[in-house]
């Protein structure tokens, strides 16, 4: 019998529907997932993990699967194109325990992945999707999902055939990025096709794509009726978005229409500082757990992508970016952050 998402992942029964942090290669490691959970994400996903790498016990691959109790529940997000290899990787993940579910990547357009027949290449072959998911299904009792797109090109939605393949193979839910492969991560989402899909699906459908604000979340829900919402880019450096969305969806009134030219909401500067430093600390612990002991340089290098997302839109952030080649220590990062926040504080005081 089909289970709803709260039953599948043991989530508290929620109204509004659950909010998920999307898998993002290079971003959704343990620290990012923990912070998203702390600010209202109900479920998170690992970065994309190679099924072949799991089978060969490749240490970098196994590092991507590292998780802790504080970021639970986490779904292991796997990629590959060979049913036997994905089935074996599923068996290993299942045996090692700790994950709330297993997800197949069938939407990544990056050449390195699609060239091997994995990721978005699977969209062209629903028969292969069926064989892969059936093989994975035989090896796990965990919730099994697939994250995919509407099709290869606008006007040619393959998603209805993909849905059938997933349902027949015993998948528990389908995650749909409401764009086509040819769009990459840009362009309009096709909510009308997502809505149509939802009317015929017998398993839960999770909607993703273009949620940058509570208004976008409300709109996707209102126009498609999906069972859960998944946020990707808007959550990087802005984990508060999950609580904002929950709050807005619980209110009787629709949220204010989102104006993309205005950027992100203005966050409290002390709160930005606290979360940014917590994230930096957690990254340091994460690197040590991954066996890296001389951590300062790698820490500063890997944290840069988060740093500028947290400071996005603030007055001193472009100046800090221009100084980047001189920033190699944690002390320099903190000094740069404080200078940026100080400039923003002065600016805010002026416009009050
Ligand atoms: C840096 C980056 C890495 C991503 N990595 C993955 C991935 O590993 N697996 C996947 O299914 N999607 C990946 N995505 C796609 C996102 O999960 C999501 O589907 C897409 O960004 C649309 O959602 P958004 O409009 O909320 O950003 C990635 C996106 C970005 C920007």
Describe this structure as you would to a colleague:
Helix 2 packs antiparallel against helix 12 (269-289) and helix 10 (214-224) crosses helix 11. It is globular and about 60 Å long. The protein is α/β, with parallel strands linked by helices and 352 residues long. The protein has an eight-stranded parallel barrel with strand order 1-2-3-4-5-6-7-8, surrounded by seven helices. It folds into two domains: 5-262, Aldolase class I (TIM Barrel); 269-351. It has helices at residues 5-9, 30-38, 51-55, 59-64, 83-96, 111-114, 126-138, 159-169, 191-200, 214-224, 241-250, 269-289, 296-310, 317-322, 330-351; strands at residues 19-21, 43-50, 74-79, 101-106, 144-151, 173-180, 205-208, 228-231. Flavin mononucleotide is lined by residues 22-27, 47-48, 77, 105, 107-108, 147, 177, 185, 208-211, 231-234.
Question: Nutshell version of this structure?
Answer:
By secondary structure, this protein is α/β, with parallel strands linked by helices. The chain is 46% helix and 13% strand.
Count of distinct strands? 8
Number of helices: 15
Overall spatial form: globular
The major pleated sheet works out as: 8 strands, parallel, barrel
Structural class: alpha/beta
**How many structural domains?**
2
Please estimate the helix content.
40-55%
The N- and C-terminal alpha carbons lie at a distance of 57 Å
CATH fold type of the largest domain: TIM Barrel
Mean pLDDT: 95
In N-to-C order, the SSE pattern is HEHEHHEHEHHEHEHEHEHHHHH
Which molecules other than protein and nucleic acid are bound?
Answer: flavin mononucleotide
Strands of the widest sheet, in order across it, are 1-2-3-4-5-6-7-8
CATH architecture of the largest domain: Alpha-Beta Barrel
Q: State the name of the first-level CATH class of the largest domain.
A: Alpha Beta
Fourth-tier CATH superfamily name of the largest domain: Aldolase class I
Strand content: 5-15%
The rounded Rg comes to 20 Å
Stretches with pLDDT under 50, minimum 5 residues? none
């Amino acid at each position: 019998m089909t289970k709803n998402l709260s039953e599948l992942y043991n989530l508290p029964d929620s109204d509004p529907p659950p909010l998920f942090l999307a898998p993002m290669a290079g971003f959704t490691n343990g620290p990012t997932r923990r912070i998203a959970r702390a600010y209202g994400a109900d479920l998170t996903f690992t970065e994309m993990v190679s099924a072949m790498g799991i089978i060969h016990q490749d240490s970098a691959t196994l590092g991507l699967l590292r998780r802790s109790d504080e970021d639970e529940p986490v779904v292991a997000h796997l990629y590959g194109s060979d049913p036997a290899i994905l089935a074996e990787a599923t068996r290993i993940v299942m045996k090692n325990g700790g994950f709330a579910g297993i997800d197949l990547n069938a939407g990544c357009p990056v050449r390195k992945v699609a060239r091997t027949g994995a990721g978005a290449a699977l969209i062209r072959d629903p028969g292969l999707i069926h064989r892969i998911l059936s093989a994975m299904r035989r090896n796990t009792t965990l919730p099994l999902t697939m994250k995919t797109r509407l099709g290869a090109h606008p006007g040619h939605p393959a998603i209805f055939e993909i849905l059938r393949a997933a349902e027949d193979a015993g998948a528990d839910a389908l995650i749909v990025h409401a764009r086509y492969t040819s769009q990459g991560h840009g362009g309009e989402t096709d909510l009308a096709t997502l809505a149509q899909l939802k009317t015929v699906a017998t398993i839960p459908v999770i909607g993703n794509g273009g949620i940058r604000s509570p208004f976008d979340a409300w709109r996707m829900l209102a126009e498609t009726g999906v069972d859960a919402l998944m946020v990707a880019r808007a959550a990087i450096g802005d984990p508060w978005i999950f609580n904002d969305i929950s709050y807005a969806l619980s209110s009787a009134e629709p949220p204010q229409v989102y104006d993309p030219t205005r950027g992100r909401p203005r966050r409290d500067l002390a709160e930005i500082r606290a979360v940014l430093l917590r994230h930096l600390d957690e990254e340091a612990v994460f690197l040590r757990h991954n066996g890296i002991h001389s951590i300062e340089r790698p820490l500063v290098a890997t944290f840069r992508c988060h740093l500028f997302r947290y400071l996005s839109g603030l007055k001193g952030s472009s100046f800090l970016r221009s100084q980047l080649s001189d920033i190699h220590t944690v002390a320099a990062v903190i000094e740069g952050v404080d200078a940026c926040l100080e400039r923003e504080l002065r600016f805010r005081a002026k416009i009050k």
